[in-house]
Write a structure and sequence with these properties.
5-stranded antiparallel β-sheet; 27% strand; 210 residues; alpha+beta; 8-stranded mixed β-sheet
Length: 210
């Protein structure tokens, strides 16, 4: 198992937001980095029905267990639609979308808004500066997800018709962790002091149309 290079950039601060940032990196950094094939991402800006593949290294900007319960949600009004391995969700139009399979040196950061799709690479090109903590989305195959993150996702529910497992205490690490067994995916919605935007993004998660 390899950990993200960014973990070695700095020592944790005593400030709460800094401690949360390193807790986030502990979750992200524990992602195993085995290669996975199939199902690249597609991005579109609503309501355009066309799709654009993110095949270039640069980002594409057009773009506790128990009985299950049902989560009723409302998707964001404006944004770009991202599809990845059967999952569909909406993010703001100015967020870059990174396909980590096509750009394995991309640094998975929590200090800038972005969407990262796939398993983080083993040789990320990360800047050596203090980390902030803002909303980001990381979607990884279930087989490569952090055991720590999977162990936290104990609440069984449905999200827009999808059976999922959620971390019931996301504020402890500042991450909404969503396990989607049907698609073999795990998503991490990182956030800073407030989870309002992350919850709004989560509300748009659904199965992509066949």
């Amino acid at each position: 198992m390899r950990t993200l290079r960014v973990l070695a950039l700095a020592r944790p601060s005593s400030h709460p937001s800094a401690r949360r940032s390193f807790a986030v990196l502990a979750l992200f950094g524990a992602v195993t980095l085995s290669a996975c094939g199939g199902g690249g991402p597609s991005i579109q800006t609503e309501p355009d029905s066309s799709t654009t593949s993110t095949s270039e290294p640069e980002p594409t900007t057009s773009t506790s267990t128990g009985e299950p319960t049902t989560t009723s949600t409302t998707a964001p009004v404006d944004g770009q639609v991202v599809e990845y391995r059967g999952l569909q969700f909406v993010v703001p139009t100015d967020w870059p979308i990174y396909d980590l399979a096509s750009a394995p040196k991309t640094c998975v950061r929590v200090d800038a808004h972005a969407v990262y799709l796939g398993s983080p690479g083993t040789k990320q090109d990360c800047p050596a500066h203090p980390l902030g903590n803002v909303e980001t989305v990381l979607v990884v195959p279930l087989a490569t997800a952090s055991p720590l993150a999977l162990a936290r996702a104990t609440t069984v529910t449905t999200l827009n018709g999808m059976p999922v497992r959620l971390d019931p205490h996301p504020d402890e690490v500042g991450v909404l962790t969503v396990v989607i067994p049907e698609l073999g995916l795990v998503t991490f919605l990182n956030y800073g002091e407030s989870d309002v935007l992350a919850q709004q993004l989560l509300s748009g998660f659904a199965l992509a149309a066949p």
